[in-house]
Design a protein that fits this description.
Layout: H1 17-34, H2 41-61, H3 75-88, H4 119-126, H5 131-146, H6 156-166, H7 170-183, H8 186-192, E1 196-198, E2 203-205, E3 210-218, H9 242-254, H10 259-270, H11 277-287, H12 332-342, H13 344-358, E4 392-394, E5 397-402, H14 405-414, E6 419-429, E7 435-445, E8 451-454, E9 458-459, H15 460-469, H16 474-493, E10 496-497, H17 503-514, H18 521-533, H19 539-559, H20 562-580
Parallel strand pairs: 3-5, 3-6
Antiparallel strand pairs: 1-2, 1-10, 4-5, 6-7, 7-8, 7-9
Helix pairs in contact: 1-2, 6-7, 7-8, 7-18, 7-20, 13-16, 17-18, 18-19, 19-20
Biased composition (Polar residues): 219-229
Keywords: Signal
Signal peptide: 1-41
Length: 581
């Protein structure tokens, strides 16, 4: 709030007609906001008439021009004198029976001549309540802030690829990433130089596509699958009173009371250690969470197709002008499901995969995406990001679904993935309620369906025995069972530098690319553009390969303006999504 020194004021006799008229308009508008009672016609007319009289009298009797600094020095004293005169004449209450001040703007009853009230006096007489105006201004600023788009800096296609990735749509993110490379620019050349080579698949690529799936068999309906935990316990196993605890738990469930043990397990499963059961129920209703299955069958959550401009998970909407919805890169429900059945096994695989991905072992594409970037916007082609058919369990790893590996590998193949990490969980519950949980992990080639490597079995009962005799930790046990799996992954499946190619070898590779139906057009264009960038293809050869791959749209990507190229890439993305559906 702005304040003035006590020795400064506006002389009432120095008001120009223009200032009085402006303040009349302002006063009328503010009165309507601050005093709803002014909305009646009689009050508005009285206020307007008084204000007009004040403007006319100031124009007729006041000196021309604005007051000088010297004329303003004693203004507050004169204003106080005027207030005193008004109170003497019974005009101190502007809401009295005589209306809004019978002497407002008119002749004083004291016979002292015409007094043109200053604007400050006008506002003081009416004693305006400014709080409604303040609230209105705050509302306007709040709405303006909410409607602002996050500032987008840098290449459009790269930004859109990052946006799609942050919102959990990995297939769309990769399409836009390849489009960014296919278009070519100084920024794209940095990504081009990060292409790698897969010794196992015998091909260059920027990103090894990895999926994961879960298969549960045996007594899968058991309430507590008792996975291995980092503490070595398995939620009720390995204690002397195990049978009693199981019996009490069954009794509590039969009576509709989850009991303290079950309540703790439910909290652990949902990551709500500090949340009461009542709050958890409300949370479950708000999030639409179901029973143990979480609504995830073979296809996984969010069965919408990859694309742009469709509503998505987390309340996304089509209104691109609305405040950016929260970006959800991974699916918390999938993660909860995996941890429920696998515990420490899932956590160990998650850590190992995440470290290798961030280190670029499976390619450098999209490994630098910021989870909460404020410089890349939140839309793709001017609209919000759709859910992918499969969401990500961890960044860059798609959750394919649930079922046995014979079924999930078919899904992974149809999704054009390269590798599938499949978790197999066998459950067996004895007559006192104790559960045996045996978990395995195997890595499959999604192109051929063959199993490349499998871990040893990881049994919760074995960890319980180790814990009782102090023979080792749960972490060391799980690491030992996964050692052979990581050895194969690191030696055979991680990527290496792409060797220098001769023009002849590059042309042969382009011929393979053009005939590969599993590759999207933008993925083909990106690789072709890279060979031209390295000088292994001539400009004419690049142009010819572009024409064969994408026709006019591809030629716009190669030769068009930035606007034309981006529009053509968006069109190729839509066409690829339509062909997959």
């Amino acid at each position: 709030m702005l304040t003035m020194p006590a020795d400064l004021s506006l002389r009432s006799s120095a008001k120009s007609a223009g200032l009085a008229i402006c303040l009349t308009t302002l006063f009328t508008a503010l009165s309507a906001i601050a005093f709803p009672s002014f909305a009646n016609a009689q009050g508005q007319q009285a206020a307007m008439a008084a204000a007009e009289r004040a403007a006319m009298e100031a124009q007729a009797g006041g000196p021309g021009g604005p007051p000088t600094y010297g004329e303003m020095e004693n203004g507050y004293d004169e204003m106080e004198m005027y207030d005193s005169q008004m109170e003497d004449q019974g005009m101190g209450d502007p809401y009295g029976e005589s209306g809004y001040g019978s002497g407002y703007g008119g002749q004083s009853n004291s016979g002292g001549g015409n007094l043109a009230p200053s604007p400050m006096v006008m506002l003081q007489v009416f004693r305006l309540d400014w709080s409604p105006l303040t609230e209105r201004v705050q509302q306007v600023f709040t709405n303006a802030t909410a409607s602002q788009q996050p500032v987008a800096l840098g290449p459009v296609l790269r930004n859109e690829a990052h946006v799609a990735y942050r919102y959990g749509n990995l297939p769309l993110a990769l399409q836009l990433f390849h489009g960014f490379i296919a278009r070519g620019s100084d920024a794209a050349e940095q990504q081009m130089d990060q292409i790698k080579f897969s010794k196992h698949f015998r091909k260059p690529l920027w990103h090894l596509r990895i999926g994961t799936s879960l298969g549960v068999h045996g007594d899968s309906s058991t309430a507590d699958p008792s996975p291995i935990t980092s503490s070595g316990s398995s939620n009720g196993m390995g204690r002397g009173d195990m049978g009693m605890d199981a019996g009490m738990m069954e009794m509590d469930m039969a009576m509709g009371n989850p009991g303290p043990g079950m309540e703790g397990a439910m909290r652990d499963d949902m990551g709500m250690d500090d949340m009461s059961m009542g709050e958890m129920d409300m949370y479950a209703e708000d999030m639409g969470m179901g029973g143990p299955g979480m609504g995830m069958g073979m296809g996984g959550p969010g069965m919408g197709g990859p694309g742009m401009g469709m509503p998505g998970r987390g309340g996304r909407n089509r209104n691109a002008a609305a405040m950016a919805p929260k970006a959800e890169m991974t699916d918390s429900e999938v993660n909860s499901r995996m941890e429920k059945f696998l515990g420490l096994v899932a956590e160990t695989i998650k850590t190992g995969l995440s470290k290798r991905i961030s280190d670029g072992k499976f390619g450098h594409a999209l490994t630098d995406v910021e989870r909460e970037s404020t410089t890349q916007g939140h839309t793709v082609n001017g609209d919000s990001v759709d859910d992918a058919a499969q969401s990500m369990w961890i960044p860059s790893v798609l959750f394919v679904g649930e079922g046995n590996s014979r079924d999930t590998i078919k899904t992974a193949h149809n999704l054009e993935l390269d590798l599938l990490f499949h978790f197999d969980v066998g459950l067996k519950e004895n007559r006192v309620g104790a559960v045996s949980n045996i978990s395995r992990v195997k890595v499959l080639d999604a192109r051929t369906g063959k199993t490349l490597v499998s871990s040893g079995p990881m049994e919760n009962t074995e960890v319980e025995r180790m814990n009782r005799v102090g023979r080792g930790s749960a972490s060391s046990y799980v690491d030992e069972q996964l050692k052979s799996l990581w050895a194969v992954v690191d030696e055979r499946l991680t990527l290496s530098d792409l060797p220098t190619l001769s023009p002849e070898v590059a042309r042969k590779r382009v011929a393979q690319v053009l005939g590969d139906s599993s590759m999207t057009p933008l993925r083909k264009l990106a690789e072709i553009r890279y060979y031209g960038y390295r000088g292994w293809l001539t400009e004419e050869e690049v142009e010819q390969a572009f024409e064969i791959t994408g026709g006019p749209d591809a030629m716009k990507v190669l030769h068009g303006s930035d606007t034309q190229a981006i529009e053509a890439i968006h069109e190729l993305v839509v066409e690829a999504a339509a062909s997959d559906s």
